[in-house]
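Researcher: Good morning. I'm working through a list of sequences from a screen, and I'd like to move beyond sequence-only analysis. For each chain I'm collecting a predicted structure so we can compare shapes side by side. This is the next one on the list. No need for commentary yet; just the structure.
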Amino acid sequence: MSGDLSKPRKVNNGIVAAVCLAFFTGMIGMAYAAVPLYKMFCQVTGYGGTTQRAEKQYAGRVLDRDITIRFDANTNGIPWQFEPVARSVTIKIGETTQAHYSATNKFDRPITGRASFNVQPEMAGAYFNKVECFCFTDTTLTPGETLDMPVVFYVDPDIVNVPELKDLKTITLSYTMFPVEKKQPVASSAPAAGSSNKVPDSDASLGG
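Model: Good morning. Structure tokens for this chain:
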């Protein structure tokens, strides 16, 4: 009789083990998917100040209402002078406008950089549409080289229909430039005879 009672318990234990394994596997899959899903969520909703990538160059209508766009620039670990050409511009809501940033490599060797961005206030990100942008694109500058980096955008007129944003007067577009490390070819990873792998002091001061 006791042998018969043990069978259901073994079956139940097997079910619990299978459920735990499925849950564990699902959690791993969610961890890998979290970053792209979060990025997609931000792009669709504007959450975290993420701007929208406009599929068309114009809003379709321009409101008789001004809004000021302020431009901000920062660097993080890259020896570039990176700044907006103009600190702000006042435009009509719905008007397509082009602004410019400038980047100059102040180091003595080529450096590759990439810019991330956000908009403040964060809720405005869903209505700040970029037609053209240098963000998330790797850019390499030679020593002393200066590059003009344009951004074309407009503010969606639907922003005035949002109670929290209907009286908004100013939006800040901020970029942060980061260094991008380029991997060396495998063939060049080993030094040639008589050569040295010693990193120059100037490179070491850059942190790479």
